[in-house]
Amino acid sequence: MALERIVGLGEHISQIADEAGYGGIDAILEAEENSDLFARRRNPHQLVPGDVLLLPTKEPRPVTVPVDQVARVVLRRERLRLRVKVLDYFGEPVVEETGRLTTDVDDVDVSTDADGLLDVAIARVTLAAKLQIAGMRFQLEVGSLQPIDEVNGVRARLNNLGFWSGEQTGPDVGTEGDFKLGVELFQEEQGDKPDGILTDDLRNKLLAQHGQ
């Protein structure tokens, strides 16, 4: 019998799968009970607080070992890949720089490539990390990026690109205040009329510039 799991703020599917005892996320992705949710979300790594995941019953996998020998059974667990493009204060990629990534599980040396991209394997339960690189410090919220069709998904991408549009828990819901100003600044940078109106065209442009 599948168990119901409600997604909390900042949680992601890899962390939920790990805490539930799955070796990876495939069992959850392939469960028929979750097909409607993942069709809606499109990217299973971008969930929304309040989403309901159904965790299928884990099937035991028998292992045969000789009784007259010492045997070692190794359980391989997937790692989560963190991919980030690091920009400096002027919006330029931080290329071929080394730094340090700290989480509540890992503390590792990292480096960016010729495009400013950082790609590192981290523990699946990671929810937040601190990155120190090129004299800058970044606080990364690993599971907080919501889909682009959610207001907070738009807000997070605008903030990541330097167009401040307020906190995800802020009081405005995407029509006034900081959010509207962030949209206007992005529109202006794109050469569009800065009217602060959130449209599908704006979402597509934001995705193209932000990625994911």
Blueprint of the fold:
Layout lengths: L2 E4 L6 H7 L6 H5 L4 H7 L10 E4 L24 E6 L12 E5 L4 E5 L5 E6 L5 E6 L2 E6 L9 H10 L16 H14 L9 H11 L2
Antiparallel strand pairs: 1-2, 3-6, 4-5, 4-7, 7-8
Helix pairs in contact: 4-6
Explain what this protein looks like in three dimensions.
The protein is an alpha+beta fold. It is built from six helices and eight strands. It has a four-stranded antiparallel β-sheet, with no helix packed on it. Strands 1-2 form a two-stranded antiparallel ribbon. Strand 7 and strand 8 (136-141) form a beta hairpin.
Average predicted local confidence, pLDDT: 89
Q: Give the overall form.
A: globular
Which strand-content bin applies to the residues?
Answer: 15-25%
Q: How many domain modules?
A: 3
Main β-sheet: number of strands, strand sense, barrel status?
Answer: 4 strands, antiparallel
Number of beta strands: 8
Helix content: 25-40%
Low-confidence stretches: none
User: Which structural class matches the secondary elements?
Assistant: alpha+beta
Estimated radius of gyration: 20 Å
Oligomer: single chain
Features:
globular; Membrane-bound Lytic Murein Transglycosylase D, Chain A; two-stranded antiparallel ribbon; 212 residues; Muramoyl-pentapeptide Carboxypeptidase, domain 1; alpha+beta; 4-stranded antiparallel β-sheet; 20% strand
